[in-house]
Amino acid sequence: MQTAYPVHDIRRLEEAAIAADPRHDLMQAAAGALAAVVAGELVERRGAVYGARVLLLIGGGNNGGDALFAGALLARRGVAVRALPVLGTPHPAGLAALRRAGGRILEPLAVDEQAETVPQGCDLAVDGVLGIGGRPGLPDRVAAVLDRLNDLRVPIVAVDLPSGVDADTGAVPGAAVTAAVTVSFGAAKPCQLIEPARSRCGRVVDVDLGFGHDDRLTRISALDEDDLARDWPYPGVTSSKYTRGVVGIDAGSDSYPGAGILAAHGAVYAGAGMVRFHGAEESRRVLTGALPNIVYGDGRVQAMLYGSGWGDRPDGADVIAHGLETGLPAVVDADGLQRLPAGGLSPEWLITPHAGELARLLGCDRGEVESDPVGAAHRGADRTHATVLLKGATQVVARPGRRSVLIAVPGPAWTAQAGSGDVLAGICATLLAAGVPAARAGALGASLQAVTAAEFPGPVPPHRLAEHAATVLGRLGQRAAGAADREGSRS
Ligand SMILES: NC(=O)C1=CN([C@@H]2O[C@H](COP(=O)(O)OP(=O)(O)OC[C@H]3O[C@@H](n4cnc5c(N)ncnc54)[C@H](OP(=O)(O)O)[C@@H]3O)[C@@H](O)[C@H]2O)[C@@H](O)CC1
Ligand SMILES: Nc1ncnc2c1ncn2[C@@H]1O[C@H](COP(=O)(O)OP(=O)(O)O)[C@@H](O)[C@H]1O
Ligand SMILES: [K+]
Question: Which InterPro entries match (predicted)?
Answer without folding.
Answer: CARKD (IPR000631), Nnr (IPR030677), Ribokinase-like (IPR029056), YjeF_N_dom (IPR004443), YjeF_N_dom_sf (IPR036652)
